[in-house]
Design brief:
homodimer, nine-stranded mixed beta sheet, alpha/beta, two-stranded antiparallel ribbon, 381 residues, 11 strands
Chain lengths: 381, 381
């Protein structure tokens, strides 16, 4: 698949409390921005993929509600769901459909309305045998505590991740929580699930993002410098890592495996990556993920954060967009939103949050929690 | 994609009230039967697709619960959802992943537990503005009544579809309702939504099905006569046909469009098809579908049924398996189960329900209701 698929258009809504826009409206806002960005008419789209985790009551509205709204008449629209890796996996499947030679141009969408779910909210995670506390903060905190015990990580280091990502997000007009926070604010925030205080957790967010991809050999018709898909990987590991007796609570094998698949396809090493959008649902998750992605040995992620290596002007900027932490996390949208950030950065159009002259960017989702990861590597054409 | 993907293994559970087997167990029953049928080890599977419409509470358990059970360690497993077209669309995406050249061998799964959903049941269908009656029987009955009014179809003809499909299903050890019914029984059954009596409706069913596909050029290593994928199409039409002012209530454009895509890819005409597994969620749906698939002009489907042309020994056998009507309809499983029937028939291994010497078979799902259809054409290698 390497170098056979190009991204020629992107779109992303303002993330946040979007009570004033419906699910379909958010998707259209992102899609029509992408149509315009690519300079195409919807009639040129031959197939679409939609990443949504919770499409409303019992599977309610998803692909079938979109044909008219997106001006995609009688075309294929497939919904992909893979927990918090939904968005990147939708993108991966769009790329496979192009690489198959069946479609020349595909629209990839990610969208979620999390604030409008009435009393239902996000369902409990984890295994049915797990009782109280099997929420995302609870389960990621279990791993974070073990990690802290093993490597001596301090809450001050976790707080630095939040400070950095909010600093980046404050530069981003589309971020949900567009504000800086201080290390003191993060440390003094109410505890959600120790060691995570409120500012260690990403918010609950509405939003949608879109990417238009096409055959790489056709891409120059639409853009002078299209961004190319270099590699993609998806890995599902043990049903629930928390029930796997070999799980060490120090990181997620799914991320390691998905990254290996993507690097092998791209023919690169982790050290070739210039910046990454990484799944920072909690501050600890970013630290663990950058280790699992191979950017540093296990246990040294905190040091990278402490030394500022992951800052916008650091050696390896992580989450220049603001990440899930500040940009927000509408589950199915996040992966596609990460792709749009990678494209903006690789085009050199990120303005105040521009990473210096990047060649290769990476987008990474982990979900399940921990059971599934998806990694996409994008590069300048 | 034509002739580039082969089916080398299939598996299917007994369909029915499967309270004694969990969702994951049903999937494993189907998958391990398929591993055995292909003569492969799970380690040879490089990626998997899972079609499930309602994976438990709020998106609960789907792809991430399967890795260990299926012996697929650190591999990609993607859930696809597309209403009642979920199973065939999962298969279509598995085929695209092979055609992309990224994976040599892929496992496609379809599964649903509909009997274990507690008080929740199947969610209401249709548009949120629709109030009472927006169930599957209610919405399909709206179209059936208009069709009856326009073409003068009689309930006796609807009943003949049920009689035929139950006759086929009675020959099928894995069918849910493995029994024959008489025309009188069908006509005298309690009315669910006029013109549909109880026996005009498919049952609510648990079940799982599996197919193993691989690169066509590698297929002969595994089977002397693999079945080839000739074409596939997916079409999403107007968000809800019932809200489209141009909808004539006489059939579904999504089926017409998906069939055209599949026929064009295969380079065939509808008249080349030797038998078809068609989405007979209600007796009327089969009649309308065989018209939309191009097997006869609109309004003449009833005559084909009346004349016995769709019987096992007829000109164009429809639903030799027993169809959704008798075999059952675990939503995400049905499309993959149809693929397994096509393969069994094309191999000439269908025993008492064998269609005479078929070269080309077709599997068709419609969902939404009516908004999405998926068509797959399979042929002898």
């Amino acid at each position: 698949m390497k170098d056979r698929v190009a991204v020629i258009g992107i779109g992303c809504t303002k993330f946040g409390d979007r009570f004033e826009r419906s699910y379909e409206e958010l998707i259209c806002d992102a899609a029509f921005e992408a149509y315009d960005d690519a300079g195409i008419d919807p009639a040129q789209i031959e197939a679409a993929y939609l990443g949504t985790y919770l499409p409303g009551s019992g599977g309610g509205k998803a692909a079938v509600s979109l044909a008219d709204a997106l001006r995609l008449y009688d075309r294929p629209i497939t919904r992909v769901e893979n927990y918090c890796a939904t968005g990147t996996d939708a993108f991966r499947n769009g790329c496979l459909a192009i690489a198959a030679g069946t479609y020349d141009m595909v629209l990839v969408l990610g969208a979620e309305k999390l604030k409008d779910r009435g009393g239902r909210g996000i369902p409990r995670l984890g295994h049915p045998l797990l009782a109280r506390g099997n929420t995302a903060p609870g389960l990621f905190a279990l791993a974070a505590n073990r990690y802290i015990h093993t490597f001596g990580l301090r809450r001050e280091t976790l707080a630095k991740v939040a400070v950095k990502n909010h600093r980046n997000g404050a530069l981003n007009p589309k971020a949900h929580l567009r504000m800086e926070v201080t290390e003191e604010q993060v440390l003094k925030a109410p505890i959600i699930a120790w060691p995570f205080g409120l500012f260690d957790c990403c918010p609950t967010t509405d939003g949608a993002a879109a990417a238009i991809i096409c055959r790489a050999d056709l891409a120059k018709r639409f853009r002078k410098a299209p961004v190319l898909v270099k590699g993609a990987g998806l890995a599902v590991t043990s049903g629930r890592p928390y029930f796997d007796p070999t799980f060490d609570y120090l990181g997620f094998r799914s991320t390691q495996a998905a990254a290996q698949q993507a690097y092998a396809m791209a023919g690169i090493a982790p050290s070739d990556i210039d910046f990454a959008e990484v799944h920072d649902c909690f501050t600890w998750t970013e630290i663990s993920n950058i280790e699992d992605l191979g950017f540093c040995p296990k246990g040294e992620g905190g040091r990278l954060e402490e030394e500022g290596q992951t800052a916008l002007d650091g050696r390896l900027p992580i989450n220049p967009s603001g990440g899930l932490k500040s940009f927000g996390h509408p589950i199915g949208a996040s992966g596609v939103r990460m792709i749009t950030e990678c494209v903006v950065q690789l085009r050199g159009e990120a303005g105040k949050r521009q990473v210096k002259d990047p060649e290769l960017g990476l987008a990474h989702n982990v979900g399940g929690p921990g059971a599934v990861s998806c990694v996409v590597v994008l590069g300048r054409g």
